[in-house]
Amino acid sequence: MVSFSLTAPRMLEQLEPPSRWTVATIAIYAIGAILIILAGLRPIIARMRAQGGLDSKTIKRRNLLEALYRAWLIAGQTALITFGYGQWVANTLGAYHIPLLEKIVLMVPFCLIIITGWALDYRFHLAIRTINAPSGDHTPHYWSRRSHILYNIRHNLLFTIAPIGLILLLSDIVEFYVLPATPHDAQEAVYLTTSLGGALVVFLISPLLITRIWKTRSLEPGELRSDLETLCGTLKLKYRDILVWETEGVIANAAVMGLIAPFRFILMSDGILHRLERHHIKAVFAHEGGHITSKHLPYLMMMAIATMTLCATATDFAAEYFELTEISAGILMFALLLTVGGFLFGAVSRQFERQSDVIGAWASAPPEDDSPTITQEGAAIFASALQQIAVMNGINPQKRNWRHGSIAYRVQYILTLGSTGATRQPIDATVRKIKLAIIIATITAAISMAL
């Protein structure tokens, strides 16, 4: 700390300010994002007030606004890195070899604009819970603007940045301090081994970090916890703890974190615990447990690694064949990950959600013979839980979701299974094929790295 405190003032004195073009690009990036939100929200909220809620046209406008805003964020950050800001960061900070410093400064404009977007978009989320409130129901509680921003910082920004930042920190430490002391012929092996090993360790322990970034506490002993622990026995589910996810009652959701039992947590939001009946809570809990017992998290992790590796291999091949510059290759890599990775992750996640929905419906009222059949009672309980969660979160049932699909489709799917006496076997067979494809892709990625 002493050496850094002495170095930091000298470093600041030697920093060259970014060029006017770079400053102008940052300003255009920020102003453009603000104008997109402001211009897009006004007609959406006005139409919601006129219609008394969300209709299909308003949903389409909202989806278009979100797509446009995300495209601007990604394109703008890419432009900043490509045309000046990235070079300025590398030239002014790269020589100091301070772990993680370059990455943090590089992402500052993106993070600040994201936070500004949450502040501006607050009006829409507040309107959803007032204009779109069910007839006869009390106005759903929502946060203040400050609490809305802090929630998104904790649950969206830090949720992503904290584990990725640890991985990048370990990578920089190895690059700056370990590799210079390593024989040249062993540097690539050391870097690859330490990077992959460090990433694996971070992924394993990250739930411990995230459950502290989020506001959580252990679910107190009682009848509900006993019921959930019994359900864990039925599902053969191992975990470290069942946590209450504190959101001031605003969020009605559940989540599961952790690849292995010592670092695995099941989270139930306070909104669910306070407003759902016990059999609905058990249905939601069983859905989250289904993700664990079906090993969805490890397969999603494998798919992510395989996708990144294969996209990198394809980029290297294209860069060599077409003689691309380093910047062009980087843009190509980013585009491949965005398109291929985004499509695959969404498609696979939706099938995994279907399987967990079916497990949730089955566990809500298992048949007496313990067969994989979905009973009408179980389907009705789980479908009712989904519908109530949609109402509590102000979600239009018809609104599509990239990872989950629409609530309406999920409800209809489960009710159809219950009414026809269907079993878990069809979705289980589909997911087995997906897992086999992921295994093949992972093996292919490993071979491509070895060649």
Please, could you describe this protein's structure?
The protein has a four-stranded mixed β-sheet with strand order 1-2-4-3, sandwiched between helices. Helix 2 (20-51) packs parallel to helix 5 (101-128), helix 4 crosses helix 5 (101-128) and helix 8 (223-235) runs parallel beside helix 10. 23% of the residues are buried. It has 15 helices and four strands. The two termini are 43 Å apart. It has 451 residues and is mainly α. The chain has helices at residues 2-14, 20-51, 56-82, 85-93, 101-128, 145-178, 187-213, 223-235, 270-275, 278-293, 296-322, 326-364, 376-392, 407-420, 425-450; strands at residues 216-218, 241-245, 254-257, 265-269. Residues 1-6 and 135-139 have low confidence and may be disordered. It is globular. Among the domains are: 1-142, no CATH class; 294-450, no CATH class.
